[in-house]
Amino acid sequence: MAGQLLLEYRGPIAVLTNDNVDKHNAFDDDMDVQLFDAFTELKARNDIRAVIWRGNGKSWSSGRDVGSIGQQKTTLTHHELMTRGIRGVQQIFEIEAPIIVAIQGWAMGGSFQRALLCDIRIAAEGARFRLPEVGHGVIPDTGGVARLYQMCGHGVVTDMVLTGRIMSAAEALSLGVVSRVVAPDTLDDTAWEMAEQIAASPAIAVKLARRVLKHLSEPSLRASMEDELFYQTFLNKSDDFAEFRAARAEGRDPRYTGS
């Protein structure tokens, strides 16, 4: 069965669920479209007071389903796909209800970045975070690097982006990437309790508190995403990227020229 993104409503709380369990909730193009459609629906729901974004199975999301790359049934160019992705995920900024992301297992690549754009992240013990894009010949392109920079500073972000090393749940808590680490069997309950607490607060107070925080962080996030759109499109046409793919296919060491 193909993966899917589920959206359900429980009173004033919406629940988004990544459901591609066999692939650790990796996203393919169809799931991306389902996610962006869910964001569009949530933007129009003024009665929703909080959103929980969770995942079925062992991982919240392992990022991109690499087996689906090149299999998309679309006439869109690479740049058009990139633009659709950035515009789709920027809808997070326009949803009135705060989004709580409940992470277990892997949060990797573009999925990790999408989580970073949300309001609150909590993690189960043993959760792991990674940005492996450079090792695959591309750059992170979902805006999360800017948010991670705001949280962790230059050194940590550069290490994660350039080496692809793994961040543990304990380190994520110490750096403010997540606000709580809980036992795996209490993750959903904790997210639900948080959502209920937010939903019970005066709506205008929640709205204005979030607006203050958005003004502090959002402009630089949008600027970073525009850079990522331009550079990723350029990179896709570069000699080095072509050499990366050729070397992988031929089982040899690549010969990069920096162009």
Describe this structure in words.
- With 259 residues, the protein is an alpha/beta fold.
- The protein has nine helices and nine strands.
- The chain is globular and about 60 Å long.
- It has a single domain, classed as Alpha-Beta Complex (2-enoyl-CoA Hydratase, Chain A, domain 1), CATH 3.90.226.10.
- A six-stranded mixed sheet has the order 1-2-3-4-6-9, with helices on both faces. A three-stranded mixed sheet has the order 5-7-8.
- Helix 2 packs antiparallel against helix 8, helix 3 packs across helix 4 and helix 4 crosses helix 5.
- The mean pLDDT is 94.
Layout of helices and strands:
Blueprint: E1 4-10, E2 13-19, H1 29-43, E3 50-55, H2 78-89, E4 99-103, E5 106-108, H3 109-116, E6 120-124, E7 128-130, H4 144-152, H5 154-163, E8 167-168, H6 169-175, E9 180-182, H7 187-200, H8 203-236, H9 239-250
Helix pairs in contact: 2-8, 3-4, 4-5, 4-8
What keywords describe this structure?
single chain, 259 residues, alpha/beta, 2-enoyl-CoA Hydratase, Chain A, domain 1, six-stranded mixed beta sheet, three-stranded mixed beta sheet, 9 helices, 16% strand, globular
